[in-house]
Task: structure prediction
Amino acid sequence: MNELIEKMTTRHAIRRFQKKQVEEDVLQQILTAGLYAPSAGNNQYSRIVVCQDSEINEKLGRISRYMMFKDKDPKSVSHSVSADQPSIMDDFTIMNGFYDAPTVLTIFTRSSQYSHDDAAMIGENILLAAHFLGLGACYIGRTGEVFATEYGQQLRKEWGVPEDMVAVCNILIGYIDGPIPSSKPRKEGRIIRV
Result:
């Protein structure tokens, strides 16, 4: 199998991270991969905010977890995600929805019909680059809700994020702690040839 395809098929969501911070040269390679992602009309308007402040990341992670379960009983919406790398859906004692990742990226894009597309392209490039470089990563949604809070709005201003941008996703990056999940079989019938 082609090495690129092999790497793409062995990438998994990682939610357990070592305390060790990602080295700057490795992080720069990952960020470069994100910047080279396609964007609608080649607008290149998205911003990637890098936060390595553990206090900020923990507070945002707690808000993210709250947003997942607000107005719901966690037990009523839970389902098995990963025994090897449990999510907040698997283990209700995990209070940080960013799983104590040492580096948290927030992807902001211009508010348009392509906002989520542009952010997803950046996110996938980052996830694959991290995997290629021996790190773990995880894509987190709910980011728009998190940055709609008073704390999120305050951070946006401090970070200098333009007002016409929306927060679309977070990417957690760090060195893997615990077992790497095994690949799950692909469901049949997902390719339709015409």
